[in-house]
UniProtKB/TrEMBL annotation:
Keyword Glycoprotein assigned: yes
GO cellular component: axon; dendrite; plasma membrane
Record's protein name: CD166 antigen
Keyword Repeat: yes
Pfam families reported in the protein's UniProt record: C2-set_2, Ig_2, Ig_3
Location of this chain's protein in the cell: Cell membrane; Cell projection, Axon; Cell projection, Dendrite
Protein's GO biological process: adaptive immune response; cell adhesion
Amino acid sequence: PLALGLYTVNAVYGDTITMPCRLEVPDGLMFGKWKYEMPNGSPVFIAFRSSTKKNVQYDDVPDYKDRLSLSENYTLSIKNARISDEKRFVCMLVTEDDVSEEPTIVKVFKQPSQPEILHQADFLETEKLKMLGECIARDSYPEGNVTWYKNGRVLQPVKEVVVINLQKTVDKSTGLFTMTSSLQYMPTKEDANAKFACIVTYYGPSGQKTIQSEPVVFDVHYPTEKVTIQVLSQSSTIKEGDNVTLKCSGNGNPPPQEFLFYIPGETEGIRSSDTYVMADVRRNATGEYRCSLIDKSMMDSITITVHYLDLQLTPSGEVTKQIGEALPVSCTISSSRNATVFWIKDNTRMQTSPSFSSLQYQDAGNYICETTLQEVEGLKKRKTLKLIVEGKPQIKMTKKTNTNKMSKTIVCHVEGFPKPAVQWTVTGSGSIINKAKETKYVNGKFSSKIVIAPEENVTLTCIAENQLERTVTSLNVSAISIPEYDEPEDRNDDNSEKVNDQAKLIVGIVVGLLLAALVAGVVYWLYVKKSKTASKHVDKDLGNIEENKKLEENNHKSET
């Protein structure tokens, strides 16, 4: 490189400066010397080398003591380059009749340290010009320049918005520069999270270079421009009994810490932190809620609906009624929105609401009226009606000759609640084939039946008794030799009555009349005979087989 047409050596601060003597060695060379020139042009000799004796001598120059080295080819080396080494050095070759000189310019460069942003502001405020910080780069040579950046873009000075002041100082002992650039900045709200950095531009041996500082983000304070109120809740709806938390927030930085909360019906605000809690809310808490800054400058509102559900069942609890009575039942709902109502009887959902104009035994049971608000989680109500239908015992007796023609089945159909206890008695002769058997008690009905083989006409009595009344019904049964057909036996579990078999009934009547005409005399004689001994018979229980046998023996002796 050339400087002003002269040969220039660029050296790095602290390295070794190497300056070759750019003259051709002439014939008859006596010695070579190096000197540098003072600012006023006067020379200072620093090194000497004889061409004949091969010895080297260094002049007593304090700045270069123990730093110089002169080679055989008259190349001069200076260790530990300094800023003060920036001079014009001259190589001299001397013969007996001539002196040759060749100058060399030395330039020294020092890279600055990485710039740092010091004295950083704790925070910035909108609408205020404030010192953001100072960018400092130390120990540079030659002096460098500092540029500020925001989000990668150069910050240009703007009056009362961006103010940059650059100062450069030099260390007199080393000659190195320190650059200090201060930045005053007025931020906007959009500068939140902006990255600020500074870059130092300097010159090195190979040209212009840059070094960047670490980016810095500043907390930007700005006033609240909007207030927002919201409900903090795990559910999208609110029902009676819930705890409700209102939260008020402002979009400023830092956010406001206190607010005024306005409750429906209250004219004055309640001062609180950013939350306001209402415990166990009721339906009268429904309404518009507002919050504002303490100075009432900004306000927001929200409407809260507290959902409720009331259920009134009439009658409810345990209710006892008599069969045939009417019972009006009503399930009244009051709610904050349309509710779903359904009835359950004995764990089975009903298709319609219960209505009792004439109570029957099958109407008894546990009724539940239940209602829900489907859109409101957890809002459900139910009430229970335990209906008891009571009735005095009612008896209907039927008889028929079994298909084997050897016995007859007598059935006592009983209705009543509480369940009646049934007893049988028989008047007349005839063996009891088995004890009484009862069907399942369903809907207040059941039947008790016996199988009997009467040798003569007998009278059977069915006694049904519960807490309300004792009912007695008797039925005349002809001897086994006389077939007869009454209403068929009820074979269903629910004891529902069957329609009489009209054809069988007619045939039975006809056959009975014919037999009666043929044996009228015999029957009449037997009837008179039996009437005389009827008083000797005692009512017998169906299950007492031994007494029936004794009765038959007595009757046989009397007839004999």
